Amino acid sequence: MSRPLVALASLGGTITMTGSGTGGVSPSLTAADLVSAVPGLADAADLRATTLATSPGASLGTADMRRCLAWAAESVRAGAAGVVVVQGTDTIEETAYFLDLHWDHDEPLVVTGAMRTPQAAGPDGPANLYAAVITAAEPASRGLGALVVMNDTVHAARRVRKCHTSAPQAFVSPGFGVLGHVVEGRVRYGNAVARHPVLPLPQEGPHPRVAMVETCFDDDGGLLAYAAAQHDGIVLAGFGVGHVPAALAGTVSAATARVPVVLASRTGAGSTARETYGFAGSERDLIARGAIPAGFLDARKSRILLGSLLALGVPHERILAEFGARGAWAQGPTVADSGGSESV
Question: Which keywords has UniProt assigned to this entry (predicted)?
Fold first, then answer.
């Protein structure tokens, strides 16, 4: 029986880092190095390994993701049943969502990395890489868009969050849970996620500047006001279901008069509200002042979505509708150009 072809590309990250002495570790291993270090990987799929970059996750940017999408699309056209992207875990929850927004193929795009270096006493990179390849080669993974595979768990890109600085089980999917698990060399799906329509990839050029501002105790609004004057859009991470101090309500009004302002929650789980609270600075008040509720999308993913929509030059009404559909994760159509609908 022939094995499926899986294309694998490395962008760097902890999984590729080595070092000696007291200087710390840094990215150095290639994609071929990673593949050769995983027992049994050659039996799981025919692999085509490519090194796209050797960068820490913290240094990745939009240009890297565009290059990654181009490589992945070409790999699929060349016959790959799925693709695996290896990168640093610092930004996986953001980069995976960017890839998911613009990945217009049924073949799965799986993102993985490692929490421990190859030189650690118990490196998790080889196991994560093995599970990612298994997931990319699995027919049941088709149509799910971008996935994140860490610690033998499979996450939807738009749900996953990094919740721990260093533990192997650092990645979680709050609220709706993981999609599945890798057990004895097979992916076992027990949860479902249907895709929203894919957004067109914006033309190359300067990417919109979107600030992420988190409100805090005794916030005077100065940072929010500065961000509104210097950026093309703002994601405001408010208290609880989407609240700010009453003294900031006017600052929010001034900001929404200049740029789109998306209202998310700083808590990391749950949805922003729409009509529960009515005090000054509440979600009802801020929405009335022009803020766009993010729903279940956290602030980091909201920033990715807002940046992509601004790069496409869509009008404010379209931005509002996209967040209403993608943040709700509820049955109903979105307004992306490619058409289609989702139910969860």
Answer: Hydrolase
